[in-house]
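REVIEWER CHECKLIST
Item 1: Sequence provided? yes
Item 2: Single chain? yes
Item 3: Sequence as submitted:
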Amino acid sequence: MSLRQTIIVTFILVLCLAFSENTNTQFQNQKQQPKGTTAVVVDERLSILRFEPSLSSIILQRISHGREIKIIGAKQAEGVTFYRVIVPPDTRAWIQSEAVVSTVRKGDDERLFNLIKASDDMEKIERERIFLEVFYNSPFRPAVLLLFGNEAATVAERLSRDVIRRLDKKEMEASGAPAHSFYMNFKEMDKYRRQGMTFTFDMNQKKYFYDGEAWREIVKRYPQSTEAIEAKKRLEALTTSASK
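Item 4: Structure as written out by the authors:
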């Protein structure tokens, strides 16, 4: 075998060895990833991560609404069901089962729906948003869509009042930026945008309007539902108000 052939064969062997090691490493990493059921936190009052499945166990932290976790086990203790969970990136702990909802646990959509109806203000909006993200095919979805849309319309009215008080015309003119950009960058909108609410602003009326996405989904997906009747009325009123 010539020197050139020897170099080529050696190079090929090195590539094969590197590929084999990389494949083995990926396979080992895949084996190390624990399987589990995805769940989402919906009740911060109960969302304490504990070192052991006990209400008196060491508290690691409390996790917020909307946080995704992996359930990898369960245990009964002190009349409570605790889930063994993994919180990304790699925190392992125990959490009370009622703190979370999952699509694979029967009745969780109804439980969250009831929790939404018992909630107020921002907490209600957060739970509505979680429901709409998690339970796409739930029979309670039309009702939650209607609640979310109506809440967004109420928020738009409140923002319309607040923006007039908060934005100073002289400061806006001094900045040189287009006037409408101040309204669409109004800081108070941020927390609602994070929850999936989208608003438009009418410069003539100096008013915000909800874009009606939730109502449109009701009319499109659930045209025969009782919620569709109000959703249509809301969309008609929205069109009339925005065209003034």
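Item 5: Key structural point noted by reviewer: The domain at 37-101 is CATH 2.30.30.40 (SH3 type barrels.).
Item 6: Recommendation: ____
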